[in-house]
Amino acid sequence: MSDIRIATAEDQILLDKEAKYCSYGDTVHYIEPPRIFSRCEGSYVWDTEDQAYLDLQMWYSAVNFGYANPRLNNALKQQIDTLPQIASQYLHKGKIELSEMIAVDAKKKFGLDGRVHFNVGGSQSIEDSLKVVRNASNGKSLMFAFEGGYHGRTLGASSITSSFRYRRRYGHFGERANFIPFPYHFRGPKGMTKEEYGSHCVQQFARLFETEYNGVWDPKTNQCEYAAFYVEPIQGTGGYVIPPMNFYRELKHVLDQHGILMVSDEIQMGFYRTGKLWSIEHFDVQPDVIVFGKALTNGLNPLGGIWAREELINPKVFPPGSTHSTFASNPLGTAVGLEMFKMTSEVDYGAMVMAKGKYFLEGLQDLQKRFPIIGDVDGLGLALRCEICGPDGFTPDKATLDYMVEEGMKGDMVVDGQKLGLILDVGGYYKNVITLAPSLEISYPEIDLGLKLLEQLLVRATKR
User: Is this prediction's pTM over 0.85?
Assistant: First the structure.
């Protein structure tokens, strides 16, 4: 294997400028020196030395449809030549048609009328959803959320994100979550099936409503102090943890009994990452609010938003001016979003993603059999996880995964005569999980290539 990589003279000039002029608050350098990239296409990015890297995280699942997707890029270019800008208080065709597409789809799947409300990204859309939820509950500011959950780093979003480090220096500004255990079966109590553990977690949550002394419920008025439960159907930053299929159905029953809304955060798992438009569709429940972002525009022009039930968001209860963003429902973003919906409707996109995901998961399971440091693998569609552990196959091993990530970024692995790097993302409660979010357009040969590169990293990790 190669020595530590040294930045080129040209890159070092840029890195010196970054060190002087750029805030470090908006980024994280996972490797030193950081790579500087110059182009991208499909499942690959290239650095300034023209070294190719296979990307298996795709901008945290924002680029679901591949880098520089020609069809989506062309939709953006065409919109630039017609209506590139318009203030958000004015209407344009793209906003109306994209809203209709999402709302009609929700009506078909969930049997609920609803409306779509746009903003510029995921965290901002979480903020808007908090306004909708608080407004519908007469100003209740307390929420339920999951341990391991991630909903963003704006003030409201970080208050319902389980990591204290995101809000430690800023305090609280209204919302606050009661963090509930997620059914993380690999690290749950032994002796239970995955489904049994899911039911157990719901039963533990339901205990909060047995008596007023559990602190959330007033049995005399039948009112809960908490307005909503924010869920990631598949945990994202928490490590792509996939719950048992019975879990949300049983949880929603408890929520409905006590007048608590379910908000499904689809920012990372939406737009076919799990083989369905929304990951919550796998679980046979009706969400009250859906929050989306990221892959709606394939990362081209930021656009996010919410879908909410009619009762929560109609103009009488959520009137004009309830929220505002200068760039909400921007025509460039809505044009790409519309084209994405058209593109994915022309084939059975979900079936394609599920087939590729099954193939990739089988490859990960084969690696698990051959490398004891892989404690757990799982996946739903092309949201896949590979948990790196100690020799016992269970103790979290963050150091080994950090080593693998750094080795992957050296760009010195060789497969079939081709020199390559591998971009991986780190997640999980103990930062020991490879969270795999490849392009949904990834080819089967590229999946094979990714598995071969992972194998090389695992060999390096076990021999170091």
Answer: yes
